[in-house]
Design brief:
64% helix, 2 domains, 0% strand, Hypothetical protein af1432, mainly alpha
Length: 279
């Protein structure tokens, strides 16, 4: 008699999380198809007012600096391209997950740190001419596990962070002790459930490993979130006191001239995001 394969139960700490939003899931499925047309994606996006507002905001933001306003979703999709549309779908999904608990200061910090990491990872990928596709999304999702655990257990997770900082506890071990899973493993599991590519799942699962020469998406994320810490957006105690020079040395080419422009974009985008979502 053949053995029945039983899918492991979802870890108890993740059972209170909401499902991935349907519209974002549909958009991600569509943009993964090379033959998809802009109007097909546009029709799905227009079903969700939040998604519509966000994609038009990004298309008209200073990041693109266009002379005239982008007024239609279809035009915005054509302008932004599929990779950026994927990133926006991911951002909408994360916002839906965390917004009910966003008044918690620690959660706001994690969410903003994720946004900054996304921008720095994408900028680093362009500077290094590697792993351009998915860099923003991988950076945005690197702390997916922390966002999820904090959203489900805001008081407990906040207190765990406070105690870890006060007592110098190892964050990963403390998470495992309290939630039976750490945020790296939790984020990777959620990303798998949400059907993100394996390279993004790996980047999430390994982001706390030591940085290495940034020739892959995973290594770019390891550098990106530590740069976000150095910029002043740290949430957790650092694994070690990194400097710009040490981290930039991991980016192929060695030049950090791209970072100045990225920092300006980070400042304007964080301000805009806080305003848009009324955190």
């Amino acid at each position: 008699m053949p053995e029945l394969l039983v899918k492991p139960a979802r870890p108890w700490a993740l059972r209170l999380l909401p499902p991935f939003p349907a519209v974002a899931n549909r958009v991600l499925s569509l943009v993964s198809n090379d033959d998809v047309a802009a109007h097909q994606i546009s029709e799905i996006i227009k079903l969700d007012p939040t998604f519509t507002a966000e994609i038009l905001r990004v298309a008209n933001s200073a990041l693109f600096g266009l002379a005239r306003e982008i007024a239609t979703v279809r035009h915005a999709v054509s302008l932004l391209g599929l990779d950026r549309v994927k990133a926006i779908a991911t951002l909408i999904a994360l916002n839906a997950m965390v917004k009910p608990a966003m008044r918690v200061e620690a959660l706001r910090k994690i969410w903003i740190h994720s946004l900054v990491t996304a921008m720095l990872t994408e900028a680093g990928a362009k500077a290094a001419h590697v792993a351009g596709d998915g860099a923003y999304t991988a950076g945005m999702l690197h702390n997916l596990g922390s966002l999820g655990l904090m959203s489900a257990y805001p008081e407990e997770y906040t207190r765990m962070l406070e105690v870890s900082v006060e007592c110098g506890f190892d964050l990963i071990e403390t998470e495992r002790d309290l939630f039976e899973i750490d945020h790296c493993a939790a984020g990777a599991l959620l990303a798998e459930e949400w059907n993100f590519p394996d390279v993004i799942v790996k980047a999430i699962a390994t982001h706390h490993q030591e940085p290495s020469q940034a020739s892959s998406l995973a290594s770019l994320v390891r550098v990106g979130w530590r740069l976000a810490d150095v910029l002043g957006f740290a949430v957790f105690p650092p694994d070690k006191p990194w400097t710009y020079e040490e981290l930039l040395a991991f980016i192929p080419g060695g030049s950090g001239t791209w970072l100045a422009g990225a920092i300006e974009d980070v400042k304007s985008e964080v301000d805009a995001r806080l305003s848009v979502f009324s955190l």
